[in-house]
Amino acid sequence: MKQHQNATPSVHYDVIIVGGGQAGLSVSYHLQKLGVNHIVFEKNRVAHSWRADRWDTFCLVTPNWQCRLPDFPYQGNDPQGFMLKDEIVEYVEAFAQKVNAPLREGVAVTRVCRSKSGKLEVTTSEGQFSADHLVVATGGYDIPIVPDYAHSLPKHITQVHSMHYRNPEQLPPGEVLVVGSGQSGVQIVEDLHLAGRKVHLAVGTAPRSPRLYRGREATEWLYDLGFYDLTVDRHPLGDAVRHKTNHYMTGRDGGHEIDLRKFALEGVRLYGSMVNIRGARLEFKPDLTKNLDDADKIYVNIRNDIDRYIAENDIDAPVEPPFRKLWEPDFDPISVDANEAGITSIVWAIGFRPDYSWIELPAFDDRGHPRFRRGVTDVAGLYFIGLPWLNTWGSGRFLGIAEDAEYLAVEIAERLSNSRVGRLG
């Protein structure tokens, strides 16, 4: 017989935070300052995704000075550098110690729904809880995306998602196809290429960015230009910007830009966007030239924005030569036979999709993405944090989490106060 969901008494909190990473801990930090009763549930350990879901040579793409968790900025001796994976884990763990949140690790939240009394009922691996407010801080990287046609690939060709890629030695001998040219894809290509592996890359629509330009790190220029403070409601694309891919570059070996045309000159085989697999035949759109040109257009636009800022503010900065293409494809290849090319493994680097199936509340669009403004949904008591473009370009990064967390904490505290006044009145 099915048990009634209220048969077991639940422990009540003013606020429950789901996710004990940097975003959830940042909200906890501000809630503690405001004296709000809450608990944080983390299904794994603090910094789990940084520790377990990144490759061995992973490092930040943004410089260390952008690590600005609430009252806990980067304090190392290399603010212009890029923290390696283990250093990121140490930074987040140190922040967790500072926050000293009411944290329960190893507790998975499996269901959130509205009770008849109006409270948010939260089912976990350790029992029932309820809350007036719930903050979802689980990120949007739940389910690795692998296309349906991947099942057509012959069994002798190894497949691995970027989430599970660790190092070149993990893959069998032979050539490797990386599918996807976002930040993860191009960095994995470089990892394989530097290890002497023969690499193929299916190039998607991701844009690219300069790393150093006119004597300065490009993200420093962009910070001064106010790019990281640009809000969703002021962006030309509006909410659609939340689904755009980040610019690719790398922090490896002190940081440098990545030009796929340079990779091609060094022997990496480039194709357009992958569209299908028929046995060992891998098929691509004839869009390689367009994708390379579009990425370069964004790259040049960023340089132009910096040039204008330098001119308007009469800044003394070295002049750089005009952009030029290092390589052009003779044609856009539309297929390759994996066996003939010697491809023995594929790394899927086409991203993730969120899994909010455990939230049984009407807060999502037709694509399963949450609807909100600055993390506040139209569903009473439900909030999100730690997502790209939650409010600004910096929202999904260490740079912008503090501001987003403080905003949500203050909003929640005010609503709790108003509801108590209402009950007393």
TrEMBL record:
<dbReference type="InterPro" id="IPR050982">
    <property type="entry name" value="Auxin_biosynth/cation_transpt"/>
</dbReference>
<dbReference type="InterPro" id="IPR036188">
    <property type="entry name" value="FAD/NAD-bd_sf"/>
</dbReference>
<dbReference type="GO" id="GO:0050660">
    <property type="term" value="F:flavin adenine dinucleotide binding"/>
</dbReference>
<keyword id="KW-0560">Oxidoreductase</keyword>
<dbReference type="Pfam" id="PF13738">
    <property type="entry name" value="Pyr_redox_3"/>
</dbReference>
<protein>
    <submittedName>
        <fullName>MSMEG_0569 family flavin-dependent oxidoreductase</fullName>
    </submittedName>
</protein>
<dbReference type="GO" id="GO:0004497">
    <property type="term" value="F:monooxygenase activity"/>
</dbReference>
<dbReference type="InterPro" id="IPR024000">
    <property type="entry name" value="CHP04046_FMN-dependent"/>
</dbReference>
